[in-house]
Amino acid sequence: MQKRKLEELNLLDNFMFGSMMTYPEIGEVFCKKLLKIIFQRDFTNLRITPQKVYYGMDTELHGTRLDVFIEEDGENPEGIATVYDVEPDKNSDKKSIQALPKRMRFYHSKIDAGSLQSGEDYSNLKNLVSIMITSYDPFGLDRILYTIKNTCVEEPEMDYRDGVMTLYLYTKGSDGNVPESLREFLRYMEDTREENVVNEELKELQTMVQTVKRDKEVSVAYMRLMEDERILINRIREEEQINTKREKERADREATRAEQQATRAEKAEAELKILRGLLEQQSQL
């Protein structure tokens, strides 16, 4: 993995995004601006929990870690409390992209499972909005925004409100009728440089980004993360080398065993040939 300096990170990088969300006096402001740009409305009462972990119900079951978990009190237009899960994602290998819808389904189930107390009425279940910001096109249609909701197949116009919505924002998408400010923000998310600061909101964000990047504690945390990743990568490489060595030794043993079997078979064939010759000689007497 190529090591990048802290000042080179973009908002689409998990570390930088998480650092912005957790930074004192900046995290909440940054979060409100992010949501305002996406939804074109102001957000007031928010509770932000970076890197919220949902463990499996059992040691054998899959858990998950959400990058940013945001709760909004019921002061939105619907009057219902809403949970926002925001996930920047650059993991663009084919297998991960194909599994993205099921990954979001899993996130939804984990969040919902923790939203109701035992015996609480289902009507109290909070709305859930998952926002995935990607540097790759998740569905290959070059859309800047994919909005996913549950509907009735037979009656698509039928009102069906289960309170769940997923937004996929593709930073390089071109198709779609979205505000220019959102396009500019996504461009800035992927390439967080001064050259992409093209409006007043981005100027404010750039000031916040520079404040966070210059903080010594953030720099130390990033260096620790890089060191942890280096150790992990080295450990994985060592395990791969050990496994490769074991596989080679196993293959060598199999080859030696096969060679020994072939030698024994050749020896047995030679002995059988001699025995046949002796038998033929005796039958001629």
In short:
47% of the residues lie in helices and 16% in strands. The protein has helices at residues 14-22, 27-39, 94-98, 100-113, 180-190, 200-213, 216-284, and strands at 46-54, 64-72, 82-89, 127-134, 145-149, 164-170. A six-stranded mixed β-sheet has the order 1-2-3-4-6-5, sandwiched between helices.
Outline the fold blueprint.
Layout: H1 14-22, H2 27-39, E1 46-54, E2 64-72, E3 82-89, H3 94-98, H4 100-113, E4 127-134, E5 145-149, E6 164-170, H5 180-190, H6 200-213, H7 216-284
Backbone structural class: alpha/beta
Could you give the count of β-strands?
6
Instruction: Give me the number of helical elements.
Output: 7
Strand content: 15-25%
Looking at the structure, what is the overall shape? Answer: elongated
Radius of gyration, in Å, reads 30 Å
Quaternary assembly? single chain
Roughly what percent helix?
40-55%
